[in-house]
Every structure is written in C-alpha cells, then in structure tokens.
Write a structure and sequence with these properties.
The chain is mainly α and 90 residues long. Helices cover 61% and strands 0% of the residues. It is built from 4 helices and no strands.
Length: 90
C-alpha cells in the first residue's frame, strides 16, 4: 500500500515513509468509523479511497476541496455498498 501511495503522490524518496504509513492507517480507521469493513486483501475501490485520503492529508494540496469531496463520496459509497459493511449481519 505504501508504494501505491508514494506513486500516486509522485514521491521517490523514503523520507516520508513514516508519515505516509501513518496516513494509510488513519485512512483505514476513518473508513472503519464509517462502517466500512476492509477486506483482507484491499481491492481497487478501497485502495483508491485510501490514496485519495493520503493525497488530501499530505502537505497542503492545492486541490484540497476537490480531494475532500472525492474522498467523502468514496467513503459514503463504500459505507452503503453490500460487501463492504456488516450492517445486516447479526
């Protein structure tokens, strides 16, 4: 996951690895708060949401508002999609 985030942020150095690892963990927790149950092997939808979270949270992005809206939409879709929640399970 770290390599995918670094590629998306166009980072080639290891200087930010600890911060990015922290952001990845924070994204997973944020999705969990929204009721998203992460699959053992992250699929493309979850990976995209995590990358978007990292993009909006790393540094000071020029397009913060657009990224925030995009992440919120991705999170909302995952939190209501069958297979990504356990709302109906006992």
């Amino acid at each position: 996951m770290l390599d995918q985030v670094k590629m998306a942020l166009r980072i080639k150095t290891n200087v930010y690895d600890s911060e990015l690892t922290y952001l990845i963990a924070a994204a997973k927790l944020d999705l969990g708060i929204a009721g998203v149950v992460l699959p053992e092997e992250l699929d493309e939808l979850v990976t995209r949401a995590i990358i978007t979270y990292c993009k909006l949270s790393f540094g000071i992005p020029e397009d913060y508002d657009r990224l925030k809206m995009s992440y919120d939409e991705q999170k909302a879709q995952l939190s209501t999609a069958t297979g990504y929640t356990n709302w109906g399970e006992a």
